[in-house]
């Protein structure tokens, strides 16, 4: 609970009025009324409510269409299901209601990291920072190359949070890492998995995949909208983190402009904590979202992918060996 929410429970607290120019201005009642109209009754009702409240549109046309298409009826019975291990699963409508307090869900123990989690590194220096772009700078490696070299060099842990995971070469690196005994944890954007199905190549004893959405918006007339998971970072051996706007897809590797930062040092601890927080909020993938292919299929190793589990150097980055 935020400090502001905690203070609001005190009837004697008097809050100073906020204006839109205040940095901490976030919630607006007029905007809330308009969004409720959009979620409950569609785009036309949203624009009508804007006119009634005498405020300008705060959503682009694409956002209006997106939110309207995501709106669903909320049925608590659909939201609460358990898998064979007694763990809460995504309901039939595929939504996560962890943004609200429902005892049947929030009182369920957080999932454990079944594959293990290494001890944190004690950092003796400030670490390093490297920035990579797509397309790459002159004589610099591509983002995809940097990412794949880190995945191929992992020995203790790979933890991935991404909105998209469809790059077959990266999936091959993850499966090869798992095959040499490296625990691989993956948190995917729930809606992307629901719409595109779950890759059977990620079904491996050393790979744990879960899904998570964004924040939950629940209206007074029991309509619900769940946002997206837009985090993108890869944690390797609790020593390095690669984060930025890069999604693990072919189009991001070949078509889109991207920027990532590669960090080592004490800042990695923040990503360690964030991953555990996201994992605790995540849910298993329902069987209905998985492809029908056999999980025993072997991934065909992409050309040039090393399988010796060594530590390849990252081009343009100093070696950490002493």
Automatic annotation (TrEMBL):
Signal peptide: none annotated. One of its GO terms (biological process) is signal transduction. Residues 17-283 form the Scaffolding anchor of CK1 domain. Residues 290-322 are annotated as: Disordered. GO terms for molecular function: protein kinase binding. InterPro entries: FAM83, SACK1. Belongs to the FAM83 family. Gene3D superfamilies: Endonuclease Chain A (3.30.870.10). This is Family with sequence similarity 83 member E. It comes from the Eukaryota.
């Amino acid at each position: 609970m935020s400090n502001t929410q905690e203070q609001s429970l005190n009837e004697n607290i008097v809050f100073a009025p906020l204006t839109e120019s205040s940095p901490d201005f976030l919630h607006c009642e007029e905007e809330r009324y308009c969004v409720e109209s959009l979620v409950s009754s569609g785009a036309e009702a949203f624009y009508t409510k804007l006119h009634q409240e005498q405020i300008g549109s705060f959503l682009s046309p694409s956002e209006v269409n997106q939110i309207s298409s995501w709106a669903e009826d909320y049925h608590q019975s659909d939201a609460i299901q358990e898998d064979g291990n007694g763990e809460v699963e995504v309901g039939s409508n595929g939504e996560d209601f962890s943004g609200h307090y429902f005892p049947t869900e929030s009182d369920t123990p957080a999932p454990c990291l079944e594959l293990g989690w290494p001890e944190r590194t004690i950092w003796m220096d400030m670490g390093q920072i490297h920035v990579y772009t797509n397309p790459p700078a002159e004589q610099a490696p591509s983002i995809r190359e940097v990412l794949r070299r880190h995945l191929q060099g992992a020995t203790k842990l790979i933890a991935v949070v991404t909105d998209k995971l469809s790059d077959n070469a990266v999936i091959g690196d993850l499966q090869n890492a798992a095959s040499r005994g490296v625990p691989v944890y993956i948190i995917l954007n729930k809606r992307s998995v629901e719409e595109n199905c779950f890759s059977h190549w990620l079904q491996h004893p050393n790979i744990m995949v879960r899904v998570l959405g964004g924040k939950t918006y629940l209206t007074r007339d029991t309509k619900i909208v769940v946002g997206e998971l837009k985090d993108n970072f890869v944690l390797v051996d609790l020593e390095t983190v690669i984060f930025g706007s890069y999604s693990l897809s072919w189009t991001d590797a070949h078509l889109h402009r991207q920027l990532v930062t590669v960090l080592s040092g004490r800042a990695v601890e923040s990503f360690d904590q964030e991953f555990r927080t996201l994992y605790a909020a995540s849910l298993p993938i329902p069987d209905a979202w998985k492809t029908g292919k056999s999980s025993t299929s072997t991934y065909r190793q992409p050309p040039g992918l090393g399988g010796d589990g060594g530590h390849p150097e990252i081009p343009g980055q100093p070696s950490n060996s002493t």
